[in-house]
Design goal:
By secondary structure, this protein is mostly helical. The chain is built from 18 helices and no strands. Helix 10 runs antiparallel to helix 11.
Length: 343
């Protein structure tokens, strides 16, 4: 379990760092610069819109916000305090501005935190949050919560998300990632984790405020099925830029899956971070090359070992050993995924 928890955190950071120079780029631009598949960590080129000049192996907002949440999850014994999360996210953005970074809060998070600062209740501040901000930082909740405790996991996902992303579509995405990570730590394969994630997404879509959007559970199953059996180059050309699709197409190789995600274009640092977290939880930290782990450890102040241990202690609960859990059956304690799940 320690290897899988550490794998989720390292995978998140590795995927994020691989996608740092390619984020906000088009797929054709990435192919022209790096080839059809990003091979390793690259520095942010001078014309990178968000990360110009950043050294190779540097993480972005995805990892930094996830680790910020990890500390609050540990402090809250599994349930982060939403008001403190809001405060720390605002402080984090100020620190990023002081460092001269343009990689700041996303639109949903910024809007919600502005509402909180203006006095809006936390239950209402995230009612318009429909982006992937909650999903990108939710990995620590999955590490800290056994997959068999579905109700607890959903409660913790909501607590970690509602201040900025309190809509069914955003909660569905966050629940999917958290559940996949949690199931992976309990021993699930990537294929099983996709099924667990889709079921969790269908359940979480019924929570929070309604917002228009595609059904997350159905899209997870569709995207993962679409790329099954394709070689990496074909999978990247034919799949939606979704973490679950790339994880499913990664041929059991988390390092390859992260490089595929970083090669997609668009918000590919976030996609690669979620892909790495899911694959790392299912395969363990040893599935990533030692050189890749060493690079992100040397280039960033992350304390992944300490955070993994702290999150696993929360997962074990008071007085319980941090032993293996038993992933719930897909469609058992959670709503089955399918075309009839609410969006």
């Amino acid at each position: 379990m320690h290897s899988r928890a550490l794998g989720a955190l390292y995978g998140l950071a590795i995927g994020d760092a691989l996608g740092m120079p390619t984020q906000s780029r088009s797929r054709p631009d990435i192919v022209a610069r790096y080839g059809s598949l990003v091979l390793t960590f690259e520095p942010g080129p001078p014309d990178q819109p968000l990360a110009a000049g950043r050294p190779a192996g540097t993480v972005t907002d995805d990892t930094e916000q996830a680790l910020l949440l990890a500390r609050l999850v540990i402090e809250g014994r599994g349930t982060p305090d939403p008001a403190e999360l809001a405060s720390q996210l605002l402080a984090w953005e100020e620190s990023m501005r002081a460092r001269g970074s343009l990689d700041l809060l996303g639109p949903s998070t910024r809007r919600a935190l502005g509402a909180v600062a203006a006095g809006t209740d936390i239950e209402e501040s995230g009612r318009f949050g429909t982006t992937n901000g909650a999903a990108m930082r939710i990995t620590p909740v999955g590490i800290a919560t056994p997959s068999r405790d579905h109700g607890v996991l959903m409660d913790r996902v909501v607590a970690a998300s509602r201040v900025t992303h309190n809509t069914g579509i955003a909660l569905a995405g966050a629940a999917a990632v958290a559940t996949a990570v949690s199931a992976g730590i309990d021993g699930a394969t990537v294929g099983d984790a996709v099924q667990f994630a889709a079921a969790a997404a269908a359940s979480a879509a019924q929570l929070g405020h309604w917002a228009a959007g595609a059904d997350v559970a159905t899209r997870i199953l569709w995207a993962a099925g679409l790329v099954t059996g394709l070689v990496p180059e074909a999978a990247m050309e034919e799949s939606v830029p979704a973490a679950f699709a790339v994880a499913a197409a990664g041929m059991g190789d988390p390092w390859l899956a992260c490089r595929m995600a970083a090669s997609l274009g668009g918000d590919c640092d976030t996609i690669a971070a979620m892909t790495g977290a899911i694959c790392g939880a299912c395969h363990g930290v040893e599935a990533f090359p030692l050189a890749a782990r060493s690079t992100v450890a040397q280039m960033n102040d992350l304390d992944l070992e300490g955070l993994a241990a702290g999150l696993l202690a929360v997962r074990a609960g008071p007085g319980e050993p941090a032993g293996p859990g038993e992933p719930a059956e897909p469609g058992g304690p959670v709503a089955p995924a399918g075309g009839d799940a609410p969006g």
